[in-house]
Amino acid sequence: MSDLVATVIIFIGLLFDLFGCIGLVRLPDIYNRVQASTKCVTLGTCMILIGVLIHAGIGALGIKALVCAVFILFTSPVAAHAVARGAHFFGVRLWEGSVMDKFLEERESQKKDK
Amino acid sequence: MTFLVLALGILLLCTFLCLYRIGAGPTAPDRTVAIDILGTLVVGFCGIYGLYRGKDFYMNIAIAWALLSFIGTMALAKYLEGRSFDE
Amino acid sequence: MKKRLPAFVITFIIWLLLTWPGKEDWQEQVFAGLICSAIVAALLGHIYPQRAEKLLQPKRYLWALVYIPYFIYWCVRANLDVAYRVLHPEMPIRPGIVRVTTNLQTDMAKTFLANSITLTPGTLTVDIIGQDFFVHWIYIPTEDVEEHTRLIVGRFERMLKEIFE
Questions:
Q1: Cβ neighbours of A28 in C, within 8 Å
Q2: Do C46 and C126 belong to one domain?
């Protein structure tokens, strides 16, 4: 029974991974790509590792998978945040269909103050 | 067995999509994001393969890979921002 | 010394989880763990945690237990939302960077708020300046700034205040 549950969870995780990667290819600019890929691949990989925990039970493999899942859950958003901020400072502008960019306004007003 | 082949097939497809983004760009941050995602996919791959083989050292590889991938992405992000690494 | 002790305990617990001592050699593993945790706590104890007495208040753990399922619910919703936008042939996106403000004071709480924002539907924290978060939003529904703050920050702010402040 727990094997079946674990397999289903792993496959849902794999599907989310696939959606994230399709988003990485299809979406128009860097910020949207970071969004889609980070969210989907983080939850997808965490679900794969939770599935491994359920399948393997409490033991060396399962506990390490749990620690790895928690680690990814904490670090992946931080990496996404750093890359998005780096891209903005690097000079990548938003997609032309975007509505507003408050961060650019803020940075320009700070430059004027200096 | 079919389970493993199917799972690794989906992960391989994801990997090729990431490789397409690494190759096509068009800007440096795009490539950085794709490399980060590739690292996370490798962690998932290690988990599934460790489950299939029943050995726990694959999870050690996964933890080390997650750590190194995170540090690498942070270093690339700092570089994109135009600051030195020790800031 | 008072600061080093929580760092030592946390590092040692992480060591035990990572090595997960087997049946034969558990004495060596635990002994090596004690030495490594002592070295880490002596060298890096000053960077975490800032106010250790918070770790011993049970009310915070209860709020964390409430927060985790709530967060997982929003996280799964975020993924379904992204899957919908990615697989839709016309890609219904209307992106932009908005500015929201928060009342949270400590760094830890702000970090967790930023991470929660990144993993919930359609939003990604780009930068934090003081109390202002700059959030990239994949589909901006209105132009109203108050509404932005309510929609993005309001979901998590109260619970994180109980947990971390």
A1: 91, 93
A2: no
